[in-house]
Each structure stands twice: as structure tokens, then as C-alpha cells.
Design goal:
Blueprint (H helix, E strand, L loop, with lengths): L8 E12 L2 E8 L2 H6 L7 E6 L3 E6 L9 E7 L3 H7 L6 E8 L5 H4 L3 E7 L3 H12 L8 E7 L8 H9 L4 E6 L11 E2 L2 H8 L6 E6 L2 H13 L7 E4 L15 E2 L2 E2 L6 E3 H5 L5
Parallel strand pairs: 7-8, 7-11, 8-9, 9-10, 11-12
Antiparallel strand pairs: 1-2, 1-6, 2-5, 3-4, 3-6, 12-15, 13-14
Bound molecules: flavin-adenine dinucleotide and FE2/S2 (inorganic) cluster.
């Protein structure tokens, strides 16, 4: 990578996939073959992506880290930079800084039953971790995914959800908020924490990994606690406003913790020790 920490590498958009009415997944490849060969990341890490002339914003790295020199990110349109992304096409160039942040503790998860709990666009970092674990399937116990969105149209990675469901070595449970179902819907109807409580997974030898809207995460943490999960058995990722992504500007702090550097992955035990959480 470059000597100037703030200078982005150039990446070409190789593919764009419409996930939902307001979320697209971008597949990006480094322009410089040397950078492409030397690049690696771990699930849970993020990058700072730029649309030239418009600005930059952090997004989770959403693909399996095994793909050499390739980065995928799923972007939900909310404001200036995310809207600028929607104006881009295959073949266009974007900037990338990263990978940044602390990854999921994959080594500590080995031998455990993994419970993935995602909501909306929060499925992006979970997708990276899930593929990473499926690529090393024998290293983990049972793998289950509970994923929910506001409506059927708002579910991301629909083709992969089907692929994961068809595999014999993991379970997939989908839910949509009440009113978000359509005539063909065969999944659950209810908020993610409610369905989690109903399903009541065992905490024995398990790790729960959750990512989604902050309100969902709060209820999921409470539900998992009621189900007997200890705070160290629960892993989540936080999103805060960021600027540098490098632990230098202080924009992202929660108490004494810089989310860009000490996070974005935290155990619930670590979050309980943050004064402002
Ligand atoms: C570590 C990390 C990983 C992220 N991963 C993803 C991802 O995979 N996909 C994705 O779509 N988004 C992700 N985000 C959120 C994303 O960075 C923001 O949506 C983006 O910065 C908004 O930029 P904007 O210029 O379009 O919006 P702005 O014009 O800056 O703001 C529009 C609105 O979005 C709100 N907003 C801005 N930044 C954030 C933020 N960080 N979190 C919550 N609300 C915000 C603003 O308060 C405002 O209401 C992540 C954020 C972090 C910190
Ligand atoms: S974004 Fe600058 S310190 Fe975290």
C-alpha cells in the first residue's frame, strides 16, 4: 500500500448487484497488480471507500477473504457518498483505504457452535465471516443463521440465502417484520429478537455473532442473555461516525475506545465495560 496513509488505492468496479431497492453490492479489483497480490483482510474488517469528487465513507468488507485482491461491499443509500456510489457503473474507478479495524476472533470460535444473527444491511460483515467458516467447515460445530429484514424485498444476498439453505451442513431461518411478508413468503414473520427468543438456541459451547441496526442489537443482546449466553459468548460489530479510520482523528470514540481501531468488532463483555454503551 502507499506511504501516505490517507491516499487511496485505485479499484475498478467489476460487477454491481442490486440487492434491494436501496442496497447494491459492488465487486472491486485493485488496479495495481502488485497491490492486488499483496492485499489481504480478515472478516469483520472494513475499508474507507471514496467516490472521487464526492467524498469517502466506511463500509464493511463483505466477501470471503480468500479471494485474492478482490473486495466486495454492500452499500445502502442514506446520504451524499452512498448516493454518489449509485451513480457509478461497471468499469468506473473508486478509491479504497484499508483494511482497517479488529476482525472477528475466528481462532477462538473454532470447535464452537456458531449462531449468526443478522438484520438488514448488517448481513454484510456476517457474510464475510460465514463464507470464511464454511470454507473451513470442519473447524466449527453447528452453524446456524437467523436473518431478518423489514420486508421480503429488503433481504440481501437472496441467491446465497438459498445456497446456504440448500447445504446440508448449516441451518438458515429467515424472518421479515410484521407486514413485510408477501404471498409467497414461507419464512417467519416477526422481529429478529422475538424469533430468536422463540427458537431459543442453546448457549452450550456456542458463540453468537450479531450485526444489524443498533435497536436490533440491543434487543438481541438482552435476549441472548436471557437464553443463558455469557457476555464473552456474544460478538457484535459497531458503526459509529468515522473520518480517518486510522485511530488518529478521535471522531469515532465511545468512551476511551476508538471504534475504527479497537473495533468495529467487540464482545458484549467489552461493550459492558465501555461507560457510554
Ligand atoms: C465500520 C463501519 C462499517 C460500515 N459498514 C457499512 C456497510 O457494510 N454498508 C453500509 O451501507 N453502510 C455501512 N456503514 C455505514 C456507512 O459508513 C454510512 O452509511 C455512510 O458513511 C453514510 O455516508 P453518506 O455520505 O452517504 O451519508 P451522510 O450524507 O454523511 O449522512 C446521511 C445520514 O446517514 C447518517 N450516517 C452517516 N454515517 C453514519 C454511520 N456511520 N452510521 C450510521 N449512520 C450514519 C447521518 O447521520 C445522516 O442521517 C458502516 C459504518 C462503519 C463505521
Ligand atoms: S475515525 Fe478517526 S479515530 Fe476513528
Amino acid at each position: 500500500m502507499t506511504n501516505n496513509l490517507y491516499r487511496p488505492e485505485l479499484m475498478t468496479i467489476e460487477d454491481i448487484r442490486e440487492e434491494t431497492p436501496d442496497i447494491r453490492t459492488y465487486r472491486l479489483a485493485f488496479r495495481d497488480p502488485e497491490v492486488r497480490r499483496g492485499f489481504s483482510f480478515l472478516p469483520g474488517q472494513f475499508g474507507v471507500f471514496s467516490v472521487f469528487g464526492q467524498g469517502e465513507a466506511p463500509f464493511g468488507l463483505a466477501n470471503a477473504p480468500s479471494e485474492e485482491g478482490i473486495v466486495e461491499c454492500s452499500i445502502k443509500r442514506v446520504g451524499k457518498v452512498t448516493t454518489a456510489f449509485e451513480g457509478l457503473d461497471v468499469g468506473d474507478t473508486v478509491g479504497f483505504r484499508g483494511p482497517y479495524g479488529r476482525a472477528f476472533p475466528v481462532e477462538e470460535m473454532k470447535g464452537k457452535n456458531l449462531l449468526f444473527i443478522g438484520g438488514g444491511i448488517g448481513m454484510a460483515p456476517l457474510r464475510s465471516l460465514l463464507w470464511h467458516c464454511l470454507n473451513d467447515r470442519a473447524a466449527f460445530g453447528d452453524i446456524s443463521l437467523l436473518y431478518g429484514a423489514r420486508s421480503v424485498a429488503d433481504l440481501v444476498y437472496k441467491a446465497e440465502l438459498e445456497e446456504w439453505r440448500a447445504r446440508g451442513d448449516m441451518s438458515v431461518l429467515l424472518t421479515v417484520d410484521p407486514g413485510g411478508e408477501d404471498a409467497a413468503w414461507t419464512g417467519k414473520i416477526g422481529f429478529v429478537p422475538t424469533v430468536l427468543e422463540e427458537v431459543a438456541p442453546s448457549a452450550a459451547n456456542a458463540v453468537a455473532i450479531t450485526c444489524g441496526p443498533p435497536i436490533m442489537i440491543r434487543f438481541v443482546l438482552a435476549t441472548l442473555t436471557r437464553l443463558g449466553f455469557e457476555p464473552e459468548q456474544i460478538i457484535t460489530t459497531l458503526e459509529s461516525k468515522m473520518k480517518c479510520g486510522l485511530g488518529k482523528c478521535g471522531r469515532c470514540n465511545i468512551g476511551g475506545s476508538y471504534v475504527c481501531k479497537h473495533g468495529p468488532v467487540y464482545s458484549y463483555r467489552e461493550l459492558l465495560e465501555l461507560p457510554e454503551f
